[in-house]
Specification:
mainly beta; 12% helix
Length: 86
Amino acid sequence: MKITLEHADLTEPEIIIHGQTESTQVRNLIELLGGKQQKMFFFKNEYEYIFDISDVSYFETDGSKVIAHINKFAFICKWFIGSKTA
């Protein structure tokens, strides 16, 4: 997934999704943005962790990986609780 952030003088943020909008990945993203998802699975050193999304300081991408920064640690994001595929 490619993410582009662009500053604009708008009264509220605008999100535009280009591509296969019916995909599981897009549906999960929409649920996340709508506040329906509260927890995510994260991986570090072959261990699995579950954190509240509110614990994440910020996300970044590295190629096809999405990395979440929580406190001083970086975790690989795999999927949201409630999604059917990784």
